[in-house]
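Supplementary Note 3. Input sequence used for the single-chain structure prediction.
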Amino acid sequence: MKTTKHRENRVVITGVGLAAPNGDSLEEFRRNLLSDVSGVTKTELRFIGEVPAGLCSFDQFRYQNKREVRTGTRAGSIAVYCANEALTDAGVSLDSVDKSRIGIYIGITEHGNVETENEVHNISQFDYDVKYWNHYHNPRTVANNPAGEVTVNTGITGPHYCIGAACAAGNAGLIQGVQQLRLGEVDVALAGGVSESTGTFGIFASFKSQGALATHDDPAKASRPFDIDRTGIVVAEGGCLYVLERLDDALSRGSDIIAEVLGYAMNSDATHFVLPNSERQAECVAKAIERGGLLPGDMDIVNTHGTGTHSGDIQEAKALKTVFGSGSKPYFNNTKGFIGHAMGAAGALELAGNLPALKDGVVHPCMNLDSIDPECDLDNLIKDEPLETEDGVDVICNNSFGMLGINSVVIVGKYHH
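The predicted structure, written as discrete structure tokens, is reproduced below.
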């Protein structure tokens, strides 16, 4: 592996907090990724009926009381849970740090649809009398809500905002945190992504009208990226936030360093509302690798975005073949078969699921990949069983791409002195 850039301003991950459809902690999440345990069940939606969905079961009252949960949002509760879990994991005590030097940067796909849909439905039961409209609606639906709810819960007084980046948002939140640390704006960043998308029928209805909503008699088998029998996207909720610190600060605290952020990139297709552009995706991956002072052959794991749509999976496979060629070193895997597509949280959650590989050298497989689509047949695409690597895992490349052609890639690696 070549020497990485930004060595004088290195940023590391020192804490992880997550809520996934198949795990409420990184340990549980990872265990289920290695044990073929799905988090996809069924949910009932107005006007649509039963559909497969990835639903979380974290304890929303661990860090909030009933009134806070009632007046806030599902996305806010997910963010509050993940933030507190990440801070605990990193050993950061809010009583002993300058809260004005902590920034909160949360990627989101959308926010406010759930609350607006529910309020419109509610007043429809009262002849659309707006006096029944909830007076918490405005703070619930502003775009900064999930990050703002974290500040109210924790008393953190540093900057907070959300980054709208469609399904590339989880990576985008992490990238924003890294950038703010390198600029010296904050000393600690809580960064990642959250999604409450399973609460809105509009997202399901739109995917259904596009013919892109997955169906299957067994919901656990509905999400099947790269499989020849894939039928579309399984919508999921969830969240993952990281504690990021500059390396010198982390070392001075005696922190347990989970990984180092080596490179990242974002770009735009600039071609279509929903159809991906493999050339721009390839450029984004290549740029992240180059920025990290790395080579394609330095990648050990590439976590694919793979949503389970026909064109999306094919275009990403094409992009990856462009960057890595054939017979190349990286092992490719995918997480959405286990949990569905967690939208704004997807990139952050999927990176988390691979992080333990830096220690144990095990690559988790794809799920529901029974028969690979020949157009998606990447070399070293791991299916069926976890793979125990011979030489371990040093570098992970994490892909997240979204509608309107927004692409994000984050590369992390094992910390070396």
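The longest strand covers residues 259-268. Residues 2-6 have pLDDT under 50 and may be disordered.
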